[in-house]
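The material for today's practical consists of a large collection of protein records. Getting from the letters to the tokens is the skill we practise here. To make this concrete, we reproduce a full record directly below:
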Amino acid sequence: MKKIKILIVEDDLKQSELLAIMIKRFFARFDISGKNEDFNNGQSFGYSDNLSIDFATDCKEASIKIQSFNYSLITLDGSLADGDHGRDLLKLMNFDEIKRTIIISGDLKFIEECRENNMLCLQKPIPINTLEEFLFEINRSLDLCSP
């Protein structure tokens, strides 16, 4: 089975945890997740050997993680910790990494910029069914797993 590694770039730890739970529930239907570990101070949220979720709160931390791991999916907020912004991180990412990124932000200008560049975007707050539709689309286009 394909291993799925996800990076959530978000400075609000409660938002990160909620998003991780929603993603975990989505992938649970594909029977890739087994054990459920607790949220670990914003660092990692491992579910099984086949699904793991990492977290970053600013551009530096996210950039280091992106360079260190080949993430199947990256979610990216606009406003980040330390005065960083998601558009700063996008400038550091290659085309393939950007292709695997979903923008999840309340920053309407950032969302508009990303949509103009044909990126997948969700505006906060996110209805659960909307996130699930996006995850289905990402799963289908990146061939992460099959039911």
Notes: The domain at 4-139 is CATH 3.40.50.2300 (Rossmann fold). The two ends are 12 Å apart (CA to CA). Confidence is low (pLDDT under 50) at residues 33-46.
